[in-house]
Write a structure and sequence with these properties.
The protein has 1 helix and no strands. With 29 residues, the chain is an all-alpha fold. The protein has one domain. The longest helix is centred in the middle third of the chain and has 27 residues. It starts with a helix and ends with a helix.
Length: 29
């Protein structure tokens, strides 16, 4: 169960990183 929670936290962290980078690129163009 702990590994599943850690995996979900890692996924959400990657999603937020992708959103941040996408918003950053959009702000440039």
């Amino acid at each position: 169960a702990i590994t599943i929670i850690a995996f979900q936290l890692h996924n959400t962290r990657m999603v937020w990183r992708n959103k941040a980078s996408a918003g950053f690129l959009e702000s440039i163009y």
